[in-house]
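Could you please review the protein record set out just below?
***
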Amino acid sequence: MSVSRRTVLATAAGAAATGAAAAPAAAAPVPAQRTLRAAADYAVEKLRAVAPAVTAFPVGTKFEKWIYSQNGDWVGGFWPGTLWMAWLHSGDDTFRAQAIASARKLAPRQYDTTTHDLGFLFYPSWVTAWRLTGDEAWRAGALRAADSLIQRYNPRGRFIRAWGALGEPQNAGRVIVDTMMNLDLLAFASSQTGDGRYLDIAVEHARTTRRVFPRADGSTPHVYDFDPATGAPIGPNTVQGYSPASCWSRGQAWGLYGFTTMYRRTGDRAFLDTARSLADYVVGALTPDHVPVWDYRAPQQPHDIKDASAGAITACGLIDLAAATGRPVYREVALRLLTALSETCLTRNSARAEAVVARCTRNRPAEDGVEISLPYADYYLLEGILRVLRPRDVDRAIDLSTV
């Protein structure tokens, strides 16, 4: 470990939000550790080769090369987040400098009230930057992003609107399961400011999601619509899943991870029960190769298009859930997921590939990004691997504490 990295991590321990982190779980079996370490090493080498030429935010690949967004779209936080994970694994301060430079480009988005994705944008980038550097500017920017996010809260329906600018009638009552992953930015804001309204909004949205999304078997739709004027429920829908009655695998992963996080931030066991229900559905739906299909209820599953990003996100959520519940089976499935991704979904066989993880699917119904690479797959694969190999470092970066 470099001297500067050791100093920064010590600073982060003091700067981190209060709360006791869950005790590290038992070490993974040695063969799994070797596989995961080799995958993380591969990711670091790939990033070391590709990052110097990256000047914007990767959103997906075309012919194995990154396509970029200048403002970050909804995925802008994942590139600096991936660089932070690479720094934690390697100790190479080049990654630290690159993460900081990339995150700074998101500054205009602090004031963006047109999207619910401010957690995706600012938690793995700015919140992590603050936790790992102690620089107050990162914390202040993340709090401004939280202020923008809560403007999207509809008190009649008790939900955070997913899409569309404020005041636009289209999509005004649309809620998506993905938003569960944006709530931790609000929990962070309450913990830092002492103002409970941020967490209150997060809790109300999570309760609404818990009430209308999970089915009896633990599966979820992608979308649920409400009447924005009255808050009355209309019913399930989908954009990225096969149908309103199907179970889009990445959405299920967002829900699993998000409900576990909300349990950790609140201690509300109803959120933990929901996370377990979603997790149990996934465990039963996974194919023997442990690479999720893009939708667990699509007609051609289990012989269908894969989405490795769903596997990486699910693995992170399951590791978290294992610690929260004390049930080792969740961690065992997570290790199988991470091992499968490391063995069968990396871009090792391609000299031209710029991403780390292949076999991802962005939006199958729209035929948009089928079997490509996606920046959040790279981020969550590294987060998941470091949750196994370096849990204390990941805690310093993203806060694994439980109230």
